[in-house]
Design goal:
- The protein contains 23 helices and no strands.
- The protein is an all-alpha fold.
- Helix 12 runs parallel beside helix 14.
- The relative contact order is 0.04.
Length: 436
């Protein structure tokens, strides 16, 4: 029986243990270039084996060189990297998110303690992206901002996209614009030939500019991206471009063009396995159809989106879907159904995404108005106030018109005129921007 020995196992002790476990003598373990005397000195701690000797001994003992040298088949950093890869995959698949985040926090602590800066950065990024996906925008910003300082936009566009989305969710759309403008400038300077990254950040910037109401600048950014689109064969790059053009065309009151662009995006996405973006494309298609008064047709698009989103959709995706379903129900005169959908959207949004909150409250107001509920007036007011600060002028105008119709129906013509005057001022602002 071997004598138990305390302390870490040395290479010599490990070699001797493995040799005896396999019932080999030193002579039997020896091979050309690795004599039994050499093995004896290694086991005695008088000699450290060369790389060549480690390889020969490990092969005869049936273990990895790493294990023979360190006692572990993987270095700690390699093991962490594998655990990080598993955690990142689980987050992308939406599996056991809470447990995965706990595992990532443990990996982060280990990496920091070991001085593994690369592993720590990767864990922070994964935790930040998980927080963003879960709608915890403030936490995501806190994790992703420091991480972004060590990552270029071209190398990790997902980090910058999530960061900009979180800024917008908290109502700071100008900060989102500044971030994506900086990213676009960085790509132009550091990777001038990287057309895909250029178009990616151009579409992100145009989206953020659209959120601030700067449609002219958003169009200019997209025109620049379009000029380079022929250089790109990547389907996802084209999808992003079509998506941004569809959204911008819709806000510019060009529904036919918007529908054409989103259909192009759907056609490209249907040959991929990207069900998430395909769901979002169907949702946008339905939204555009409703702007054309095609509420009945929009229903199939929303049904497709809901099926593709699956049982655990992102809170913002769920809110957007429920808001559009509420608006469709209102257009079809189904007040109770519109109210139910709108309340689900508001619950999904929580205290964040003020622009989307404005749209959800507007949909709720229309549902209440169809049922002649007194709460409709105050709900319209809340929606209009949110949209005036955070939303698009087009949505504010539509909300004011619906509000005025409700007031007139209630016999409150003077108040309806005041609301219509508010809408007229918004329209005048839109026309002035168009002329400029």
């Amino acid at each position: 029986m071997l004598k138990n020995e305390t302390g870490p196992e040395s290479i010599g002790k490990r070699l001797r243990r493995l040799r005896l476990e396999r019932q080999l003598s030193q002579r039997e373990l020896a091979s050309p270039g690795v004599s039994y005397a050499y093995i004896s000195r290694i086991e005695a701690g008088a000699r450290r084996p060369s790389v060549k000797a480690l390889r020969q001994l490990a092969r005869k003992l049936g273990v990895s060189v790493e294990y023979l040298e360190t006692g572990s088949d993987l270095r700690d950093v390699d093991e962490r990297e594998l655990r990080l890869s598993d955690a990142e995959l689980e987050l992308r698949l939406g599996q056991n998110v809470e447990g995965t985040e706990q595992a990532l926090n443990s990996i982060l602590d280990e990496a920091v303690a070991a001085g593994d800066t690369k592993g720590a950065l990767r864990a922070r990024v994964a935790l930040g992206l998980a927080a963003a996906s879960g709608g915890r925008n403030a936490e995501a910003i806190e994790r992703l901002e420091p991480a972004a300082q060590s990552l270029s936009p071209a190398s990790r566009p997902d980090v910058y996209e999530a960061l900009g989305r979180c800024y917008a969710a908290l109502g700071d759309t100008r900060r989102s614009v500044d971030l994506f403008r900086t990213c676009l400038e960085s790509v132009r300077e550091d990777a001038p030939d990287d057309t895909a990254s250029h178009i990616r950040f151009a579409t992100y910037l145009s989206y953020a500019l659209t959120d601030t109401g700067d449609l002219e600048q958003a169009q200019s950014v997209l025109n620049d991206a379009l000029a380079r689109a022929d250089e790109v064969v990547d389907a996802y790059t084209r999808v992003r471009l079509y998506w941004s053009l569809a959204r911008l065309s819709g806000l510019q009151d060009q529904p036919a063009a918007a529908l054409e662009y989103v259909r192009r995006a759907i056609a490209l996405l249907e040959v991929t396995e990207d069900t998430l973006h395909l769901a979002r494309a169907h949702l946008l298609c339905g939204t555009i159809m409703m702007s054309q008064g095609r509420a009945e047709e929009a229903g199939s698009q929303f049904d497709a989106a809901e099926q593709l989103f699956g049982p655990r959709p992102d809170p913002l995706d769920l809110a957007s879907l429920r808001t559009d379903q509420a608006k469709r129900a209102a257009m079809l005169g189904r007040g109770p159904e519109a109210e139910t959908f709108a309340r689900e959207a508001i619950a999904a949004l929580g205290d964040e995404h003020p622009a989307e909150q404005g749209l959800a409250w507007a949909a709720l107001a229309e549902g209440l108005a169809l049922q002649d509920k007194d709460a409709a007036d105050e709900t319209f007011r809340k929606a209009a106030d949110l949209l005036q600060v955070h939303g698009h002028d087009v949505d504010l105008t539509d909300t004011c018109r619906a509000w005025a119709r409700y007031l007139r129906k209630s016999g409150r013509d003077s108040e309806a005129l005041d609301v219509l005057d508010r809408a007229a001022k918004v329209n005048a602002s839109i026309r002035a921007q168009t002329l400029n």
